[in-house]
Amino acid sequence: VQLQASGGGLVQAGGSLSLSCAVSGRTFSNYALGWFRQAPGKERDLVAAISRSVGITYYAEDVKGRFTISGDNAKNTVHLQMNSLKPEDTAIYYCAARRREYWRLSEGEYDYWGQGTQVTVSS
Questions:
Q1: Rounded percentage of the chain residues whose pLDDT exceeds 90
Q2: Are 95 and 114 in contact (CB under 8 A)?
Q3: What is the band of 54 on the pLDDT scale with cuts at 50, 70, 90?
Q4: 30: nearest Cα among 79, 94, 73
Q5: Quick check: helix, strand or coil at residue 3?
Q6: Strands 57-59 and 67-72, how do they pair?
Q7: N or C: where does the chain have the smaller number of CB atoms within 10 Å of the terminal CB?
Q8: What is the predicted pLDDT for the residue at 55?
Q9: pLDDT at residue 27, rounded to an integer
Q10: Which residues, including other chains, have CB under 8 Å from residue 99's CB and lie 6 or more apart?
Q11: Cα–Cα distance between 66 and 47 in angstroms, integer?
C-alpha cells in the first residue's frame, strides 16, 4: 500500500490550502485515514481523520470549523481542506492509513504512511 500526499505550500494567514492523499496498491475495503502534522520541536499529532466506509470523522479541537476531511472512494483519495489558516498551522503534514474501519488518535495505530508535505502559513 502506498500513500501519496500532495498540496502543501506557502500561504498567508487567513488563506486556504487543500491537501490530497492518494492510496494505491493493495487497498482494503474498509480503512481509516488520518492527517497528522508535526511542527518543529513538537510531537506528531492527529489533525483530522475519517473512517472511509462509514464516513465518521474526527477533528482536533484547534482545527474544528476550519478544516474539512473528505473521501473520494472511487479514486481512493482523501482530501483535507484547510481554511482560515493560522501561522500555528505551519507544520509538515502526513497522511496515514489504518487497516481497520475506525480511526484512532495514536500514530502507532496506523499501518501505512505517506511522505510529508510542508504547509507554511505566514503572518
A1: 80
A2: yes
A3: confident
A4: 73
A5: strand
A6: unpaired
A7: C
A8: 84
A9: 67
A10: 28, 31, 111
A11: 11
